[in-house]
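Ticket #4471: structure export looks truncated?
Reporter: QA, pipeline team
Priority: medium

Steps to reproduce: submit the single chain below to the structure queue and open the exported record.
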Amino acid sequence: LFLHFFKYFLSNILLFFFINCFLRVRLHVIIFFVYFL
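Actual output as written to the record:
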């Protein structure tokens, strides 16, 4: 039970981390295009 909970918690952290990185990269790309256009 504890292992299952830990795996669920870890997957949520990884998902949050990937979404955060993706949004940050997209934001930088948008800022880059707005700045150079």
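Status: closed, not a bug. The export was complete when the record was re-opened. Leaving a note from the reviewer for reference: The chain has one domain: 1-37.
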